[in-house]
Amino acid sequence: MSKKQNDTMNIVLAADYGYKVQVETVMKSILKFHTKVHFFLINKDYPKKWFLYINEKLAAFDSCIEDKKITSSSYLNYRTFEHISEATFYRYHIPELIEEDKVLYLDSDTLIVNALSNLYDLDIEHISLAAVRDSGLKNVFNAGVLLINNRKWREKNVLHRALDIHEKSDETLKFADQDVLNELFKNEWLEIPDRYNMQILGESMVAKRYTVPTDTVVIHYLTAIKPWASYDTTIKSKVGRVCRILYAYLSGREMRYPLRIAIKNRDTLPFEQEWHQLSQLKWEDFIENRNK
Known about the structure:
alpha/beta, 3-stranded mixed beta sheet, Spore Coat Polysaccharide Biosynthesis Protein SpsA, Chain A
C-alpha cells in the first residue's frame, strides 16, 4: 500500500470551527510542498460557506477538501487535558467516514516544514498504522501523526471498540484517545523516525532555544504552549504563560533553569514565527507567493 508518483495524497484533519485558523495554517504548510491533496475535515460545526471558500482556493493546487460531519455527543464527558477539545476523539470516525484505504491523519497543532512524500509513500500494506514513539514513553506511539491503513481500521471496527473502551475505562485513560488507540493497535504499528512527528514539549523549552534537525518534516506542538498563544500579547495571555512556567517549576520539571530567565524568554518554540506568518497570510497572497 504505497502512493504511486503523482497520485493524490489523502490527508485527514479533525477540529472544531474555533480552530479554523490552525486548520488553514496546517493546510497551507502542506501546500507549500504539495499539490493534488485531498483533504478531509472531520467536524461538527464548520459552515458550508467555509468549505466553498476553501475549495475555491484549493483549486489553484489541484486539491480539494471534503466536509465530514459527525453528530455524536458521546465525547463531551470524556476525560482529556484542559487544552484539548472533544475533537481529539473524532479520529475514531476515520474508517466510517472515509473510503480511501490509505490516509495521513494530522493534528491541527502541527506544522509541515518539509515534503511529506517519504512519509506518505511508506508501505503499510500489512500493518495498521505507522507512527512516531511518544516522547518519554516506551512502546507507545503518539497519535498526532498517523499514517493509516484504513482497510485494517475498518476490519478492527475502531469506532465501536474505542467507544466501548471509554465506557469501561474512561477514568483510567491518562492520555485519552491516544491510550485507546495504543490499546487497539498494540504490536500492530510501525515505528518511524522522530522527524515525522517532532514533538515540541513547550514546558521543557521555556529557557532555551530549541533547534530541530534539518530533515524534520512535521513539527507537533504537543502541550498547552502553542505558537498562537505565544503571539497573544494580551494581559490575560501573558499572565497565563507565567502561571504555566511557575507550575512547571513547582512540579519540579524546570528546576535546572533560572526562573527569571524562563519568564523573560518568550521566543522559545521552533518555527513559531513561521507558524505566525503563515497563519496571517491571506489565501490570495499565499497562492501568489506559491506560484512565483
